[in-house]
Write a structure and sequence with these properties.
two-stranded antiparallel ribbon; mainly alpha; 209 residues; single chain
């Protein structure tokens, strides 16, 4: 039996179980890696790549793309190129910063074009996304409008069918005219109405009694 001290207590364990217990401890509990607590948020991770707001960057790219597609940009770029060329041709030699054939100017224009193309494509992609969303909303609105129109059409048809079964004023008038004509025909044919004759004969029988 070999005594082992753990947590201020002395426990006696078998000698053969000491190596096994130490191996289990080194494999399971003695990893040296703290467990993450689930009741606390994780600390923020440090990022090597800087973060940016995609929406803000997209709006900036759209502004730049709109400006690049205006006549103002073409005028300003033309003025800058003319001043660049005139300065590097007519200025004193010590003040010229881009001698002929204006390699630095070509580099700046190439750099401007290389940045302008992706910005324009990004603006176009955002516009395509907006157009897709608008088309989807228009399609749903059209579907709702078609459904409402079909519903109203069915309701109007049901009302027409119901009105066809209702007695209108003209129909009642025509029926009354037919009844009056029939009564007049009976009166002209028999002298008196059958109902009136029956009532008179009944009255005579009562008087006789």
């Amino acid at each position: 039996m070999v005594p082992e001290r753990e947590g201020g207590r002395v426990e006696r364990t078998p000698a053969g179980a000491t190596a096994t217990g130490r191996a289990a401890a080194t494999g399971a509990t003695a990893t040296g890696r703290p467990r993450a607590r689930l009741d606390q948020p994780r600390p923020p991770r440090r990022r090597i790549v800087p973060e940016w707001d995609p929406e803000a960057f997209g709006r900036l790219s759209e502004r730049i793309a709109r400006f690049l597609g205006t006549g103002r940009f073409i005028v300003w770029m033309t003025i800058v190129i003319i001043l660049w060329v005139v300065w590097n041709v007519s200025a004193p030699g010590d003040l010229r910063f881009d001698e002929y054939p204006f390699i630095f100017l070509t580099l700046m224009l190439s750099l401007q074009a290389s940045y302008a193309a992706p910005l324009i494509l990004l603006a176009q992609n955002r516009q395509d996304d907006r157009d897709r969303v608008n088309l989807e909303q228009d399609r749903k609105q059209n579907e709702r409008s078609i459904a409402d129109t079909e519903y109203l059409t069915r309701e109007i048809a049901a009302l027409r069918i119901g009105l066809g079964e209702v007695a209108t004023r003209d129909w009642i008038r025509s029926e009354l005219q037919d009844v009056l004509k029939e009564l007049e025909d009976r009166r002209d044919g028999h002298g008196v109405f059958p109902a009136v004759a029956a009532e008179r004969s009944h009255g005579r029988d009562v008087d006789d009694r």
